[in-house]
Amino acid sequence: MIEPFTPEPLRWVAEDGTPVRELPARFTPELLRELHRLMVQAREFDRKLITLLRQGRTTFYAQSSGMEATQVGLARSMRVGHDWVWPYYRDHTLGLAMGVSMFDLISQCLGTNSDLCRGRQMPHHFGVKAQNFVSISSSIASQVPPAAGNAIAQKYLGTDEITICTFGDGATSEGDWHAGMNMAGATKAPCLFVCENNQWAISTSLREQTASENIHIKAKAYGMPGFYVDGNDIVAVMEVCLHAAEWVRAGNGPALVECLTYRVGSHSNADADAEKHYRTREEVEEWLGRDPITRLEKLLEHLGHPVSAEERAALIAETHALVDAEVLRAEATGQPDWQIMFEDVYADMPVHLRDQEAFLRQEQAGGRA
Ligand SMILES: Cc1ncc(C[n+]2csc(CCOP(=O)(O)OP(=O)(O)O)c2C)c(N)n1
Ligand SMILES: [Mg+2]
């Protein structure tokens, strides 16, 4: 039994890698190594995409470094392609761990012809139909009411699908968040809300964000259980999310999971060198010392299945090579033509858009007479 509303985050693995609760049988060395692989790949994906940003090949990126256990753990506790995910903009690691290909992600970031949205979305705001991974919106918490609506529809249709809705700590101050939570609670909709509490909303700290002691206690007001979990302990994240998802799937209504983690990098390319402006280097160093990948490596070592330095180096090199190859493959498909911005929305294009398209066509042909 996993208790909601605990004063401290639930944890399975201590920072030194020793289990503090019995490790469930599903955590075989093979699974733990697979989780490790996904987390290292995600970390290196961040590094490579930041390089692409600096080269001017993409224009926006929000890294998830430090938050890999939260996103990979959540991904591995859902039924991919069956459940529906309403994510937020830092969730590319969630997508990767759900099986979204690096090629699709990179194509979206570069806005090439191979991009599933063909360059119409802001970079790093992808959506992929195969995984029921709904298009990301930049407007904080705007995904929460439609996620509740999605779950209400699932309930009325009588499916055993559930909806998973993610957001940051900052999102919980938005009106949309409360409206969505209230709707899901009042209708007992099958929605698993997951707060990726990285303790900062750009430059606003968690303490400035809310007078509540933590985020998960807010669930009480909406008639749902709130679970508090160490978001840098992948075993804990998976166990709690699996438990909460099963509870939701069984028809009990929604649940909230708060994963306590930390964003070790900048918020996005809009605020490089974050700690110089709003947080101390000491704070960042402290959380770098609680790295989720290192903790999993220590657990594997404790269990007698260590990841060697050579294996880790090979995995990093392999990821870099894969990203490089997929960038070239995506760029080779070229940039979408300007006309595509008028396509795929209306079956019959409204008159104002027809006028705009005609205007642009004339401009492209050398300007108006
Ligand atoms: C409605 C709205 N208000 C403000 C912003 C500007 N903004 C972008 S990200 C962000 C911080 C969000 O923090 P959090 O929800 O904790 O997510 P994190 O970036 O930490 O993962 C803000 C205020 C926005 N995108 N949308
Ligand atoms: Mg945050």
TrEMBL record:
Residues 37-337 form the Dehydrogenase E1 component domain. Keywords: Oxidoreductase, Thiamine pyrophosphate. It is an enzyme of class 1 (oxidoreductase). Pfam families: E1_dh. Its cofactor is thiamine diphosphate. SUPFAM superfamilies: Thiamin diphosphate-binding fold (THDP-binding). The keyword Amino-acid biosynthesis does not apply. It catalyses: N(6)-[(R)-lipoyl]-L-lysyl-[protein] + 3-methyl-2-oxobutanoate + H(+) = N(6)-[(R)-S(8)-2-methylpropanoyldihydrolipoyl]-L-lysyl-[protein] + CO2. Transmembrane segments: none annotated. Its EC number is 1.2.4.4. The branched-chain alpha-keto dehydrogenase complex catalyzes the overall conversion of alpha-keto acids to acyl-CoA and CO(2). It contains multiple copies of three enzymatic components: branched-chain alpha-keto acid decarboxylase (E1), lipoamide acyltransferase (E2) and lipoamide dehydrogenase (E3). Belongs to the BCKDHA family. This is 2-oxoisovalerate dehydrogenase subunit alpha.
